[in-house]
Amino acid sequence: MASLLSSSFTLSSPKVDHLSSLSQKHYFLHSFLPKKTNQPNSSKSFLKVKCAAVGNGLFTQTTPEVRRIVPENNRGLPTVKIVYVVLEAQYQSALTAAVQSLNDNERYASFEVVGYLVEELRDESTYKTFCKDLEDANVFIGSLIFVEELALKVKAAVEKERDRLDAVLVFPSMPEVMRLNKLGSFSMAQLGQSKSPFFQLFKKKKQSSAGFADSMLKLVRTLPKVLKYLPSDKAQDARLYILSLQFWLGGSPDNLQNFLKMISGSYIPALKGTKIEYADPVLYLDSGIWHPLAPCMYDDVKEYLNWYGTRKDVSENVKGPKAPVIGLVLQRSHIVTGDDGHYVAVIMELEARGAKVIPIFAGGLDFSGPVEKFFIDPISKRPFVNSVVSLTGFALVGGPARQDHPRAVEALMKLDVPYIVALPLVFQTTEEWLNSTLGLHPIQVALQVALPELDGGMEPIVFAGRDPRTGK
């Protein structure tokens, strides 16, 4: 197939001008545009185009070096080195801003950080760099590590350094990786065996990853208030773990800055005795309705539509009863971290074309509840929307983890409108996708094309790709 795709093919000359006009409107990148030959101009002249493979097509060609921050001058302050592994790069911009702000203040410590996308660890040289980074790290953070073969690679690397590391924080991931958690006296090494309510979450074998994530979110909201009044160190360390999860799920630069202050002041030996003030996490709705121009997130669709009716920036037709209503499904993490440019663009474009939008989000991995709550009238049982477009690219229930298709189909059947799953290039930059003879990353084909189709999702159109430098 590769040889076939890299072979030359021809376009008749009438198509040339058409392609050129499209290129001026940025519909095609320069790498896909035909180059003119020196053939004489005639009605039978042809244009030769060659598509060449770039990269090995098996994993992203991005580098963790774009996520590495090394303080220029630590001014004699202790250095705190943080290594993190995440599924997607939406935390890159917010975490970079948090670390740079801490370093600009030049108080307490100098912060060094480097981040890896889990798919990058397929590359052996990148994996070796990851292992090398762990050797002198203080803190390891992992999140949404659900690809089994890569989870085992992360486990093997972190396990070697776990006893030496000052803190290991792993947020919803496969149990093998979650067991690496270590925060003072708090550990998850016995995950699934303890009788505490927290560990019992992992013992429910029939519970899907989406259900587990939602159960964890409920626990996150209540447990810190209880643990705060318990005297034992273990309870306090457990409380700080839950607070860490709240900071992480809150994902804004301010939340992440306070998260790093809390962990550093509590667990870095060089900072023991240093009083480092940090604010409590700013909490956001677990699920709701978000619009980039709205004054707040909404937990009630009627309130959202009331606000929508007061807008002065859209035409009366868009606000009127005859406008088509499009339901959008968004990932909360992209909103709170500020990696929402692709969402904003789609919302603005739909409104410019005359559609009303109801963009919903969820903090867990189960979007079926928000779909039923915000897209269906609870009294008439009729849908508020004419169609739904998921901009997450993932299955409706389970996201990038294990899917629950029967639950998703049940929710979508109640809705009974066309359901499109559009694709953001989670594991690739736009250029990698355009220049690859394989097209979509194989993992992305599985997670964001095949699995959503089992829900009933259709038309998997690529609508966004990552910037290789900023990760946005």
UniProtKB/TrEMBL annotation:
Instruction: Cite the CobN/magnesium chelatase domain residue spans from the record.
Output: 246-467
The EC category is ligase
Which residues belong to the signal peptide in this entry?
A: none
Q: Name one GO cellular component term.
A: chloroplast
What does the UniProt keyword field contain? ATP-binding, Chlorophyll biosynthesis, Ligase, Nucleotide-binding, Photosynthesis
EC number(s) reported in the record: 6.6.1.1
Where does the Magnesium chelatase subunit H N-terminal domain start and stop, copy by copy?
A: 81-242
Source superkingdom: Eukaryota
Q: What's the protein name? A: magnesium chelatase
